[in-house]
Write a structure and sequence with these properties.
single chain; 486 residues; alpha/beta; six-stranded mixed β-sheet; 16 helices
Length: 486
């Protein structure tokens, strides 16, 4: 009996068909939507959960031994345009020849709210909103024209919605801008879904939100069946610590590992350290392989109504301690934000792969929209390392929160949890891999960076308030200015 001869291309095609069929059965996402999500990622093949970045290597193998320490800090609730839109590189706010920022968003009556520099470093309480409904209203079917009208209701001043168009500059955030001016940034780093903190942080540590879309759920019941990144690090003997304020430890709203508490409680108990200890450990050269830093969410995370210079001061402490550490030559630091916080961004989020079989569970009366098949708005991302790409590099690869997972999984050859992190782009585009191979640092030492903005003057608004928002003169009739909403 003669058997047919199969070409490698045919075998791969059959394999891809089987993988696509398995994905469709698991998630229900159509072939067309899968193809669109893969195109956005710059991919042509669909990788499976449980697979390894390097199938020929044992799981737990360190594939980047010259980077011995990865440090991660995630701050809260600011979009790329809101924080870095005026950096002058990357895809930020549009600036006209006279220096005027051109981006606008409409009110329901047709008047336009122009983007404006925030009056100071303080924020309004509870505004803008980034809840599931508010985020999808802001997205407005891909126009990104719904930010201002999202926060308008009959119970509040309709002008309050204008806060979404506020932005910060180097005058507000001197250290953040200095950091982003020296080190590579990402201008296509999206949060994982159009929603709040809790589901996004679940994606961050396990590649899935397991059905949640809001912050008003009982996380103590949360369980990730494929595990979390902390479980995988434990399994393969990779050291890690969660540096979190003692004020917030075991507070379900304050410790990121607790977002899948059933997976992580026992391990976290052994690996929790008070936040200030990170600076001590860095300066003493005593960091684990992976450091996860949780800020004090009451005053350091930069969520409204906080004064954002407090969070910048924490960022400066973390970065400067890494720069002064004897471990500097072996460390990679990643900064990003969990979601956009309701603040304007002009780039529509791309389609995404559905992570697993669990659909979103929305509040009564709310819509599913596209579920988990679209990313959220852009957030700032900066990578600091002696091997970071120099020359004011901008990475325009599409990332989401699971790209942090993909980076850790690539370094230690760890299996993927879901379709989302299996196919996420890792963050090695931020590094000069040739320089790393040659062991010739692009940043032999930490460059001189500006001092953080927590001056007496900036801190004064913590008492006096956020100022007049929106500022006078920033609202116009639609025909008076060029409208740029995306």
């Amino acid at each position: 009996m003669r058997f047919p001869t199969w070409s490698t291309t045919a075998i791969l095609a059959l394999s891809y068909t089987a993988q696509a069929r398995r994905y469709h059965v698991t998630t229900g996402q159509s072939d067309e939507d899968v193809a669109a999500a893969l195109r956005a990622l710059g991919r042509s093949d669909l990788r499976q959960p449980g697979s390894l970045p390097f199938p020929d290597l044992e799981p737990g193998t360190d594939t980047m031994p010259d980077i011995e320490h990865i440090v991660f800090l995630q701050l809260e609730n600011h979009s790329f345009d809101n924080m870095l839109g005026m950096l002058g590189r990357g895809d930020g706010l549009s600036v006209g020849p006279n220096g005027q920022v051109l981006n606008t968003n409409p009110y329901p009556n047709g008047t336009l709210q122009h983007a404006f520099p925030m009056p100071n470093t303080c924020q309004l309480s509870g505004r803008p909103s980034q809840e599931w409904l508010a985020s999808h209203n802001a997205y407005d079917n891909g126009t990104n024209a719904g930010f201002v009208r999202t926060d308008i209701s009959s119970t509040i001043d309709e002008m309050v919605g204008g806060v979404a168009m506020g932005y910060y500059t180097s005058d507000h955030l001197p250290f953040t801008y200095s950091l982003a001016e020296h080190f590579p940034i990402g201008d296509r780093f999206f949060c994982s879904l159009l929603a709040q903190t809790w589901p996004n942080r679940r994606f961050l540590i396990a590649g899935t939100a397991r059905g949640i879309v809001d912050d008003n759920v009982n996380l103590t019941a949360g369980y990730a069946p494929a595990g979390t990144i902390f479980n995988e690090l434990d399994k393969y003997g990779i050291s890690w610590n969660n540096y979190a304020p003692d004020c917030c430890w075991r507070d379900i709203s304050g410790n990121t590992p607790d977002f899948f508490g059933k997976n992580n409680y026992d391990s976290e108990t052994k690996r929790h350290k008070d936040l200030p200890q990170f600076m001590v450990d860095a300066l003493e050269g005593n960091l684990p392989a992976f450091s996860f830093i949780d800020p004090n969410y009451a005053n350091q995370s930069q969520e409204n109504p906080q004064n954002i210079v407090n969070g910048e001061a924490l960022l400066a402490d973390v970065v400067n301690s890494i720069g002064q550490s004897p471990l500097w030559s072996k460390t990679m630091f990643i900064l990003n934000y969990d979601e956009h916080g309701g603040y304007y961004d002009h780039v529509p989020p791309p389609p995404a792969l559905i992570p697993d079989e669990v659909p979103p569970h929305v509040q009564p009366g709310e819509y599913l929209y596209e579920g988990y098949s679209r990313l959220g708005f852009r957030v700032p991302a900066v990578v600091v390392s002696p091997y970071a790409k120099a020359g004011k590099y901008v990475s325009s690869v599409v990332y989401d929160q699971t790209s942090v997972l993909a980076t850790l999984q690539r370094k230690w050859n760890l299996p993927a949890f879901t379709y989302r992190d299996a196919n996420a782009n890792d963050m090695l585009d931020f590094l000069d891999l040739d320089a790393l191979k040659r062991k010739e640092p692009t940043f032999a030492k930490m460059p001189a960076l500006a001092a953080p903005g927590n001056t007496t003057e900036a801190l004064a608004c913590s008492t006096t308030g956020a100022g007049v928002i929106p500022p006078p003169g920033t609202v116009s009739e639609p025909d008076r200015y060029l409208r740029v909403s995306h």
